[in-house]
Amino acid sequence: MGVTNGGRAADLPDSVDVIVVGAGHNGLVCAGYLAAAGLEVLVLEARDVPGGDTVTEELTLPGFAHDSCSSAHVLIQSNPLIRDDELGLLGAYGLEYTMTDPAVVLPQADGDALVMHRDLGATADEIARWSRADAEAFRRLVGEWSDGLAAEHARWSSNLPPGDGDAAGRYQALRRRSAWDVVHERFENPVVRSFMVWLALATIQDPCRPGTGVLPASITAGRLNFGWTTPIGGSSALPAALIRQIEAHGGRVACSAPVSSIDVEGGRAVAVHTADGREVRARQAVVSSAHLARLAGMVSGADVPADLAQARDTWRPGLSVFAVHAALRHDIAVNGKGGPVASAAAGFGTAEGVARQMAAFHRGEPDASDPWLLVVDQTVVDPGRAPDGGATFKILTIAPYERADGRSWEESKHEHAEALIGLVRSRTTGLEPENVLAMRAESPVDVAAHNMHNLGGSCHGGEFLTPSGEVIPGWLSYRSSIPRLFLTGATTHPGGSVSGRPGRNAARTVLTDLGIDPAKVMGPI
C-alpha cells in the first residue's frame, strides 16, 4: 500500500469499495474519512506527485522547497478535521502548523507599515495609528462576526441550511453584498480600506462582485485567530499526513494513474479506467474530484446527465493568477518606520489600485502599477525549506489568461515579473539583485500547465454562473444524478482554497448514502 507511481496493471487491485479520482487535498480528506469508517479506498492521481495545489516542489534550485500554489492553511483550521483533529492528522500522522505573528504586514508608500497581529486589541491599536474611528469599526466588525455570523458561516461552509435566528438573516444579507461596498461603508481611512480590501481578496474572488460581502469579516477573523498558518515542511505536509492516515486504515494512493473514464452500468457508477487501459471496479461508490468542466466528458456507458452538463457549461475561471518564485540568499524584511519587520506574509495594493487592477483584468490587461500582491517568505518561520540560511520567496497576483494586446505570456512574463519584483523591492530589504539566486515566473498559462486542474490559470477552482445571474464559487451538490457517483474538489462548494470543506462534506454525503453513520468518524460542523 502507499504512494506509488502507477506501473503495471497488477499494481492496482481489481476492485475496492470506493475509488476517489484525484489526490488533491479534498480528495484525500474525503478518502481519509471513508477509510476511517472502514471502507476499502483507492485514490487515483494523474500527476506523479499527490497533493494537487497543496504541493511543495523544487521550482528554482535544488534544496529550495517552494509551495507551488497554496501556502497558508488558514481556512482549514476552523474545519473540525483540524480543529478537533478528527482523523488524527496532528497527533498520530505528523502534521504540524505554526501560527504566525505578525499575521501579515502591509508596507506603505511613505515608509510606514500596517502590521496585523494575531490579536484583536493589538491590531485595533495598529489601525488607530491611522484612524481611531476605523479602529472601533474594526472591533465592531469582528464582534458582529463572533455574534452569530461565524456560526452561520460554518453552516454555509458545511452546505447546511441556514439557521432560524436573526444571525441567519444578517449573514444572508451580508453574503449578497460586495466586499468593496462593505469595506467602504464601514471604514473611512484609505490605508485601512486598502488593508481590508487586501484581506478580502485572499480567496481570489473579485471584491467588487456581489456575493463577496462576508469575506472582509471572515478572512479577518481567520487571520486574527490563526495568523499566517504555515505547514511545517511545506504545503505538501497536509497531503503527506492524509496519505499516512489512509494507508494506516488499509487504503492506497496511486500516482501516475490518470483516470480517463468513469464507467456507468445499470444506471450507476461501477468502475474507472485509467489512461493506460487499467480498470478498477468500485463495489460501492466513485468519488470524483475531477474538474467539473471536464467530468461530463469522462462519463462512459450513459448519456451525459443534465447536471454535469450544466456544471460544465456554467463554469468559468474567475480570476487567473500570476506567480513569481525565487530562491534567495536570505529572508527579506518589510520596511517600517520602526525598522525592518520580518513576516511570513506581506500585502501590497491600495483599494483604488486593486479596483484598477480588476478593471484591467476584465479588459485583458495585466497591471503592475499598484496591484493586489501577496508576498510570501515562509522560511522566516520555517527555515528548513532552504539550505545554508537561504529563503524561498513568492509573489502571487491577478493577471488575465490572455492578453488583449496580443502579446504572448511566454515573451512577456519575465518583464511583468520584473515589474512586480521592483515594486516589492521598493518597500523591503533583502530583495536586492545580488540576493536573488534564481527566479521563476509563472504566467496564468504556466499555472494552467503546471496542474491540469488549474483551467484558465485559476488555482482556486473558478466559479459558476447560475441561471439567475448569481456567481457562486463552488457547485452546490456532492451528489451527481448518476447513482453512486459523488463529487468533491475545488469546483464543489464552498470552492477553492485550503479549507478541506469539500472533502469533509462529500465524505459525509457518501457515508450517509451508503447507510453508514457519519458520526462514526466526524462530529458536527
Write the topology of this structure.
Blueprint: E1 3-4, E2 15-21, H1 25-36, E3 41-44, E4 56-57, E5 66-67, H2 80-83, E6 97-98, E7 104-107, E8 113-116, H3 120-128, H4 132-157, H5 166-176, H6 179-186, H7 190-200, H8 215-226, E9 230-231, H9 237-248, E10 252-254, E11 259-265, E12 268-274, E13 279-288, E14 299-300, H10 306-314, E15 315-316, E16 321-328, E17 333-334, E18 345-348, H11 351-363, E19 373-376, E20 391-398, H12 409-425, E21 428-429, E22 436-442, H13 444-450, E23 463-465, E24 471-472, E25 485-487, H14 501-513
Parallel strand pairs: 1-10, 2-3, 2-13, 3-10, 11-14, 13-25
Antiparallel strand pairs: 4-5, 6-9, 7-8, 11-12, 12-13, 15-23, 16-20, 16-22, 17-21, 18-19, 19-20, 23-24
Pfam families: Amino_oxidase
InterPro entries: Amino_oxidase, FAD/NAD-bd_sf
Function: Probable oxidoreductase that may play a role as regulator of mitochondrial function.
Please give a structural write-up.
Helix content is 31%, strand content 20%. By secondary structure, the chain is of the alpha/beta class. The strands form seven sheets. Strands 1, 2, 3, 10, 11, 12, 13, 14 and 25 form a nine-stranded mixed sheet that branches. A five-stranded antiparallel sheet has the order 18-19-20-16-22. A three-stranded antiparallel sheet has the order 15-23-24. A hairpin with an 8-residue loop joins strand 4 and strand 5. Helix 4 (132-157) crosses helix 8 and helix 6 packs antiparallel against helix 7 (190-200). The protein starts with a strand and ends in a 12-residue tail after the last helix. Residues 1-10 have low confidence and may be disordered. Residues 27-510 form the Amine oxidase domain. Interacts with COX5B; this interaction may contribute to localize PYROXD2 to the inner face of the inner mitochondrial membrane. This is Pyridine nucleotide-disulfide oxidoreductase domain-containing protein 2. Probable oxidoreductase that may play a role as regulator of mitochondrial function.
